[in-house]
User: Which sequence fits this backbone?
């Protein structure tokens, strides 16, 4: 597979989950319990905004394959509170504008919320099918790296949750395999290891409700296309509500 020149491609990638609980208005009095993962996600997003105002996000969602353009706006009203979201700066006015999508997918809503929290200019969201095969995810990542090549810096926001079957607090029945699965995710993200992400079993991920698997494997495809070694910093990895959330920052090889 041909590699993309490091000085003309994605300048940084961050990995975050996309639960609604990141938004304080949606959790009421539970803001303290959700603070740790929220702070980690906002910190990662700000790290991304430090190097690029233009973002491209990748996430798995049943609405995929599709692209949500940065001109689209939406709201968290479907999750209990009408918190307006814009995928680009200066677009928070909730009017009858046709660019307002009343059913914007959750990953796009969270991407827009993080964009605003970090002060980035815009984010375009690429949605892939949750069941996309590993080889297809890797190919999608390589295509994305090539498509984004150019002189302007681009930040990559990768959204996805881990297994939702940890502990009795999980939304699904606990599964003893969830621990080893997310240990593997944590290790791969902490070591900027694309091979480790590609080794995640798609069928097991489906059984464990790990919706982030496809998006993480797209990231692996990007990293392999750009070339390595990448460096990583793991900011958070835990399952406070029975669902695993991982937050990491990946940087490509230094230019020059």
Assistant:
């Amino acid at each position: 597979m041909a590699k993309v020149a490091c000085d003309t491609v994605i300048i940084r990638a961050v990995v975050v989950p996309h639960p609604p609980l990141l938004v304080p208005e949606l959790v009421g009095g539970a803001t303290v319990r959700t603070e740790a993962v929220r702070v980690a996600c906002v910190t990662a997003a700000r790290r991304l905004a430090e190097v690029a105002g233009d973002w491209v996000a990748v996430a798995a969602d049943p609405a995929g394959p599709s692209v949500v353009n940065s001109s689209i706006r939406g709201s968290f009203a479907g999750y209990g509170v009408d918190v307006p979201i814009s995928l680009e700066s200066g677009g928070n006015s909730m009017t009858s504008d046709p660019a307002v999508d009343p059913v914007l997918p959750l990953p796009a809503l969270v991407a827009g919320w993080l964009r605003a929290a970090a002060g980035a200019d815009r984010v375009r969201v690429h949605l892939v099918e949750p069941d996309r095969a590993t080889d297809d995810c890797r190919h999608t990542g390589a295509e994305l790296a090539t498509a984004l090549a150019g002189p302007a810096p681009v930040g990559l926001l990768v959204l996805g949750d881990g297994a939702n079957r940890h502990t009795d607090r999980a939304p699904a029945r606990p599964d003893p395999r969830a621990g080893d699965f997310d240990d593997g995710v944590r290790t791969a993200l902490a070591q900027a290891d694309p091979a480790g992400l590609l080794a995640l079993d798609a069928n097991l991920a489906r059984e464990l409700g790990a919706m982030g698997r496809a998006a993480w494997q797209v990231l692996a495809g990007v990293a392999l296309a750009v070339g390595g070694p990448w460096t990583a910093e793991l900011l958070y990895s835990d399952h406070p509500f029975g669902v695993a959330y991982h937050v990491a920052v990946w940087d490509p090889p230094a230019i020059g």
